[in-house]
Design a protein that fits this description.
By secondary structure, the chain is an alpha+beta fold. The protein has a single domain, classed as Sandwich (Jelly Rolls). A hairpin with a 4-residue loop joins strand 1 and strand 2.
């Protein structure tokens, strides 16, 4: 079983950053996903309606009637995971691998000079880890005094301590092309 708070070799996860004082950890899978999986997920995303919010385009789906409220805005799931088969399959896979019931997926679409300002994902209804898949152009993910460049197919996961204790931000894309970031969360109901 994969543990989010211990060094891990399963799925070739490498410890990226660790704060011993807070026991906060962040992991990245350095293996790129198979292109077919990426294409299937991108095809699923074409079915979704995106809206502009907080300087980027967003869409969300997940377990019906789960609401993720952040920045004083509701993001109520009205579209079930089953609407997007490849996303649904990947969600079931990571839920099993990390023993966590991911029930909400926020999809960010970055274009032009879109970026994500420094923030913490520390809303009280969040439980467990947040998993993230980057598709498209490369962008820099900055946290604490560190950063990594998220390339196409990079999968990252941070435990609750990481997101409660570290502000993080994402730069505009390196080549000015489109980048999708899919972030799975568990929202308490």
């Amino acid at each position: 079983m994969l543990q989010l708070n211990k060094a891990c070799t399963h799925l070739d996860l490498d410890l990226l950053a660790r704060d011993e004082r807070n026991k906060a950890e962040f992991w990245i899978n350095r293996k790129t996903l198979k292109e077919a999986t990426s294409i299937s997920i991108l095809e699923d995303m074409k079915k979704l309606s995106f809206r502009r919010e907080f300087g980027r385009q967003i869409a969300w789906l997940g377990t019906k009637d789960i609401n993720y409220r952040y920045a004083n805005k509701n993001h109520l799931n009205t579209i079930d995971f089953s609407f997007a088969p490849a996303i649904h399959h990947f969600t079931r896979f990571i839920s099993k691998e990390f023993s966590q019931d991911f029930n909400h997926l926020l999809i960010n679409l970055y274009s032009d000079n879109d970026k994500l300002n420094a923030h913490k994902d520390d809303e009280p209804e969040l439980t467990g880890a947040i998993a993230s898949l980057s598709l498209g152009d490369t962008a820099r993910f900055t946290f604490a005094d560190s950063h990594i460049d998220l390339e196409h197919g990079h999968f990252t996961i941070g435990n609750r301590e990481f997101f409660n204790n570290f502000s993080h931000s994402v730069s505009p894309t390196f080549r000015g092309k489109i980048r999708f970031n899919l972030t799975w969360r568990t929202i308490s109901s």
